[in-house]
Design goal:
The protein has seven helices and ten strands. With about 230 residues, the chain is α/β, with parallel strands linked by helices.
Length: about 230
């Protein structure tokens, strides 16, 4: 909505993953618009192509690329969308400068990413705290920044863009909620990789998994997501 895309507009979903936002974006540009999905993963490319084919979207294209090397036509794009992308990039300022040049006059970029504070589980869990610590260390070890939301305004201005005021959302819920299920799909699985990377001790993961199972069975347990901060710049 914040991109204010009109039918016939050109938009790109940057770091599109399996294409979960494409239907919303495609509904806004319409059948006469242009929608580009970009990701470095060919696995997600197959997902996007299958999704577009099943829906009959003839104006949706997938391009495999890293954002650091992505070449978008200068001044050609009405809207750019990036969800949970900047926090992975070692030099987000350089990427934003490239993206700013791609925007048409009056074009907008919409970004959703993290301020990682607030991530918590109740009843409290030492195992979960260890996994949160390891998650942050994993991002940092690969050049990412889970507190990128606090730096984006300055990075956007440096790229020649004018940012609007940011908006903050937190997902929260018990074991049957979408918020908890989202966390349940992430932390138990990825904590194995954190052990392999040497960022989480095996006994810490075992404690986390046991405590997580207890919280999953407790209908009064609550999971709180990180702060999810959205911002639009022109």
């Amino acid at each position: 909505e914040d991109l204010r895309l009109a039918p016939g507009a050109s938009a790109a979903d940057l770091g599109c993953g399996p294409g979960l936002a494409l239907a919303d974006l495609r509904a806004r540009v319409g059948p006469t618009g242009t929608l580009l999905a970009v990701d470095e993963s060919e696995r997600w490319g197959r997902e996007v192509r299958a999704r577009a084919a099943a829906a009959g979207w003839r104006n949706v294209e997938f391009r495999r690329a890293r954002l650091e090397q992505l070449e978008l036509e200068p001044g050609a794009w009405s809207g750019l969308f990036a969800r949970w992308v900047l926090s992975f990039l070692p030099d987000p300022g350089a990427v934003l400068a490239r993206l700013a040049r791609a925007l048409a006059p009056g074009g907008r970029i919409a970004i959703l990413d993290y301020n990682h504070e607030g991530l918590s589980l109740f009843p409290e869990s030492e195992g979960f705290r260890a996994v949160v610590r390891a998650t942050r260390a994993l991002y940092a070890s690969r050049g990412g920044d889970v507190w990128i939301a606090g730096r984006r305004t300055g990075l956007l201005r440096a790229a020649g863009l004018e940012p609007d005021a940011p908006r903050v959302d937190v997902l929260c819920g018990g074991p049957d909620s979408d918020a908890f299920l989202w966390a349940d799909a992430f932390f138990p699985h990825h904590s194995a990789g954190m052990v392999e990377a040497g960022l989480l001790a095996p006994d810490e993961r075992e404690r986390f998994l046991a405590e997580w199972a207890e919280r999953r069975a407790d209908r009064d347990a609550l999971f709180f997501s990180p702060l999810q901060v959205s911002i639009v710049a022109r």
